[in-house]
Amino acid sequence: MLQRILRPSVLRPVAALLRPATAAFSTASPLRNLAQETVAPATPAAPIATAPIETPAAVEADPSISLLPLLRLQGAHYITVHINGFPFLVTKGDQITLPFRLKGVSAGQTLKLTHASVLGSRDYTLKGNPYINPEIFSCKATVIEETAEPMRIKEKTKRRNRHVKKVRSKHSYTVVRIKELEVLDV
Q1: Is 168 helix (H, G, I), strand (E, B) or coil?
Q2: CB atoms within 10 A of CB 126
Q3: What is the pLDDT of residues 149-172, one digit of tens each?
Q4: Nearest to 56, CA basis, from 66, 44, 70, 41
Q5: What cellular-component terms does GO give this entry (predicted)?
Q6: Across 48-171, where does the E strand assignment appear?
Q7: Could you tell me whether strands 86-91 and 164-169 are parallel, antiparallel, or unpaired per DSSP bridges?
Q8: Which residues of 79-112 are buried (b: 16+ CB within 10 A; e: fewer)?
């Protein structure tokens, strides 16, 4: 009974808000028929005369080549080399432990690393897209050893089951030392 009494009084203010507004209060612009309007054709602008810029062929191919002598003069260089898809940021003398065994290499062998994405120094950085041209730098590494980690044993169990499975793993690694890193004269 109480709901029937309160309900009409609650709906009266809401019903007043839902009435359509009169045209005098409208702020919308009148609608136009765009199909009847005509548009004047655009006048072509006069072409802009440009003088050809003379640049050497090497700089035209890659504008960063002009800054290469400045990079060469810097002292210590760093490089991001990619070995089997793994990026390694190294400098001369660094030792890298690769998380895999390189096939066909033995200890003492020298490798030439040609896939590099970043070459830089303290003040200058050369970035490749995706890699830098291998004619710009020389990076050589020596294989120190091929080693393996100690045997790891992990116990795997399942809930509410007394069976324990022992999983053994022993990953092999290749250890490499960067023996040469220099920016070549192009």
Answers
A1: strand
A2: 23
A3: 999 999 999 999 999 999 999 999
A4: 66
A5: mitochondrial large ribosomal subunit
A6: 78-83, 86-91, 95-98, 110-112, 116-120, 125-127, 137-148, 152-157, 164-169
A7: unpaired
A8: bbbbbeeeebebebebebebeeebeeeeeeeebe
**For the segment 24-36, what is each residue's pLDDT rounded down to a tens digit?**
444 455 555 555 5
Most distant pair of Cα atoms in the chain: their distance: 98
How far apart are the C-alpha atoms of 107 and 174, rounded to whole Å?
9
Query: Is the whole-model pTM more than 0.70?
Result: no
Structure tokens at 165: 């499975």
Residue from 181, 179, 99, 110 nearest 146 by CA: 99
* CA 167 to the chain's CA centroid: 36
Count of C-beta atoms within a 10 Å radius of residue 60: 11
